[in-house]
Amino acid sequence: MHRFISLFYFLLLAAASLFSIDLFPQGDPEPLKNPPPFPEAGEYSTCHQTGEGPVIDWYSRLKLKYSDFKAQSKGSPGFAVATTSSAFGYRIQDDGSEVSGSIFVRFYCEESWWNPNFIMDEVLEHEQLHFDICELFGRKLYKEVLSLRNADRLNKRTIQRLHAKFEKQYANYQDKYDKETNHSTRGGEQRKWNEKIKKELDELAEFAGYHEF
Fold first, then answer.
1. 143-to-37, 137, 177, 205 alpha-carbon distances in Å
2. How far apart are CA 175 and CA 164, in angstroms?
3. Which domain holds residue 64?
4. For the CA atoms of 56, 103, 15, 145, what is the dihedral angle to 10 degrees?
5. Does residue 212 belong to any structural domain of this protein?
6. Domain for residue 171, yes or no?
7. Residue 167 lies in a domain
8. What is the pLDDT of residues 111-154, one digit of tens each?
9. Hey, CA dihedral for 185, 189, 195, 200, is it positive or negative?
10. How many C-beta atoms lie closer than 10 Å to residue 56's C-beta?
11. What is the DSSP string of 74-99?
12. How many domains does the chain have?
């Protein structure tokens, strides 16, 4: 089960795709009898404050931690071990003569929740790959933005259409990931996806510098 939300920022036209995933939506696994202490909110967290609230910008050497999940409640029906909210999107400024902007890939800390009774590293790894997939689509978006710019076709309308196209692909890709891994419970499939996304990120490594265009 997932939530898919679009955000639009109108001061500088922008768009984002939020993806949230509930783990084990069809059954309640047994909680740990003696779970390890759950980190206090903010302890060792890498969230930083922005106008959109605390977020984590994707970085290859920075991995999600339990303490990054700061939502006070799950915010969706049914049982879940974790609910993750991440987004890829853009901001653009077009004054009619010059177009500039940036692309972002973010994890939204206060919209992401973790059940403290289930401290499971395999689930955290699964959630990390959701964020990695978000990064993958950020790079795909940047690649096409550069193509539009080279063809002198980059403007608010064309990038909005481009982003809408990738939104659909992104949602389908995330759903496929969850179905094939069964929300992390199929270890073999999870490892295949880990390798698959790493390879795809490597193939688009030259488009990782999307922070400005």
1. 43, 10, 23, 10
2. 17
3. 2-207
4. -160
5. no
6. yes
7. yes
8. 999 998 888 999 999 999 999 999 999 999 999 999 999 999 99
9. negative
10. 22
11. --SSS--SEE--EEEEEEEEE-SS-E
12. 1
